[in-house]
Specification:
The chain has about 475 residues and is mainly alpha-helical. About 85% of the residues lie in helices and about 0% in strands. It is built from 18 helices and no strands. The longest helix has about 100 residues. It is elongated, with a radius of gyration of 37 Å.
């Protein structure tokens, strides 16, 4: 069974399971989603979301999980604005339903979006929250691996190598526990890079070679290409240019075969850097020419200006100043365009993040207000119930008093008739009065219960009438 078939199977089981069993099946979906391509992820998410809109009446949690899944699909398609909106709304809904697993999932993915948008402070804050929630469950180990992997990479970017190492180790251990090679490979890459930074080169090599071995055994082209490239970078930094070239060419073949075009351009650039380090100008020009053509096809400007810079350097070394100047101008022009686009994107991203955080704060305020209103309503209802009980108790006592007087008044003629038949007895008369007195309390309780039942029935009829009226009004509208 393929990964896509297993995801669809889990979604079908989720449709019919009770709300308490959602995590059992959705955790499988979350574990397998990374192995799907972009179109498959989007197809599964949209299909499940549409199903919940029409078929999950009375099961709001299934709709909320579908809402989160749709947000995940948008995030993985780089549609961050809609992803933030869906995650923020889903988080609010999960909170309202006291679903900590759902809140944890949203926190992790919000952290992932913030990391993508470059806000490491908010990303770490959200990721830490998700980590603390998901480590309490035995369901979402794959999402926990994604969380710790993101945290580790942020700490690596911030040059906090000890924290990065700790979280890459957690990612490795968590993914090993569930045999998830996807994040296990990423963890091994991270462990290799941290050890390079800490100058533990022997250990770094072991981690990177293990990543390549795992990627090859799993036959995942993307992981193979990434692992070959990481190991090639290690060899280049170690001065083993021959092995670095060999590994980059292997990665290039894999990536071109599977149309990972942007990644293939990276390998062309790495090959050029290797040749430049060896003063092999013609070989460097050859691979840069191929890389530039490919980068222009997919319009990836950062890679394009990097290639133009390297070309300028090569022609400068060859004393060809005209070509060197041409490529240097191209480099500056493209870099300025990228910087301008980056600035505009950062402004847009900052606005998205601000709006998402404002919505989060508003949701917290709304939740607090809702809780306060519920508490006040509860107190008010308790007060009303106490007043009702007091009122009924008084009325019952009055009725009991009347019944007691009636019984006492009726006792003399009734017992007079009885005693005339059996003979006068003082003790029987006293006994009759005692019975009447002792029966007053049960009579009081019975009357009180009867009056309370009447009040409850009246309230039910009134509520039913209001609901019927509202429903009729809605239908007419």
């Amino acid at each position: 069974m393929t990964h896509l078939e297993r995801v669809n199977q889990s979604l079908e089981q989720l449709k019919t399971c009770p709300s308490s069993g959602i995590s059992e099946y959705f955790s499988t979906v979350m574990r397998l989603v990374p192995y799907l391509n972009k179109a498959e992820k989007a197809g599964c998410a949209h299909s499940f979301y549409e199903w919940t809109q029409g078929n999950a009446a009375g099961e709001p949690l299934k709709f909320i999980y579908a809402q989160f899944f749709l947000g995940l699909s948008h995030h993985l398609s780089d549609e961050h604005e809609s992803a933030l909106r869906l995650f923020t709304e889903a988080r609010k809904n999960f909170t309202d339903h006291n679903d900590n697993d759902g809140v944890g999932l949203c926190a992790v993915l919000l952290g992932s979006v913030y990391r993508t948008l470059g806000n490491f402070d908010l990303a770490l804050k959200s990721l830490w929250e998700g980590y603390s929630l998901l480590k309490q469950t035995a369901m979402y180990f794959s999402t926990l691996s994604a969380c710790t992997n993101s945290m580790a990479n942020i700490y690596l970017e911030l040059q906090n190598y000890d924290e990065a190492l700790a979280f890459f180790n957690i990612t490795y251990e968590t993914s090993s526990k569930i045999d998830d090679y996807y994040f296990k490979i990423y963890a091994l890459h991270g462990l290799g890079k941290v050890n390079i930074k800490k100058n533990n080169l022997a250990e770094a090599r072991v981690f990177l070679e293990e990543a390549l071995e795992l990627a090859t055994s799993s036959n995942n082209a993307l992981a193979i290409g990434n692992s070959l490239t990481e190991l090639a970078n290690f060899n280049f930094s170690s001065g083993d240019f021959e092995q670095a070239e060999k590994l980059n060419r292997q990665a290039l073949v894999t990536r071109e075969q599977h149309q990972y075009t942007g990644a293939a351009v990276t390998n062309y650039i790495h090959l050029a850097e290797i040749f430049i380090s060896q003063s092999k100008w013609d070989e460097a020009l050859d691979v840069l020419g191929k890389g530039l053509k490919m980068a222009e096809q997919i319009k990836v400007k950062p890679k394009m200006f990097r290639i133009h810079f390297l070309l300028s350097e090569i022609y400068h070394k060859q004393k060809d100043m005209e070509k060197s100047l041409f490529h240097y101008k191209q480099f500056h022009e493209l870099r300025e365009q990228v910087e301008k686009e980056d600035y505009e994107r950062k402004l847009s991203d900052a606005k998205l993040i601000f709006e998402a955080e404002q919505t989060k704060k508003e949701n917290i305020i709304i939740k607090a207000q809702k809780t306060e209103i519920e508490n006040k309503n509860k107190q008010l209802q308790e007060t009303l119930d106490e007043l009702t009980i007091t009122k009924v108790s008084r009325k019952a006592k009055v009725l009991t008093f009347i019944v007691g007087i009636t019984l006492i008044v009726a006792q003399d003629p009734i017992f007079g008739l009885v005693l005339s038949q059996v003979g006068d007895s003082y003790f029987l008369s006293i006994l009759a009065k005692v019975i009447i007195i002792l029966s007053l309390k049960p009579i009081d309780i019975a009357i009180e219960n009867y009056l309370l039942r009447r009040i409850v029935l009246k309230k039910r009829k009134k509520t039913t009438a209001v609901l019927y009226t509202d429903a009729s009004g809605s239908l007419h509208k």
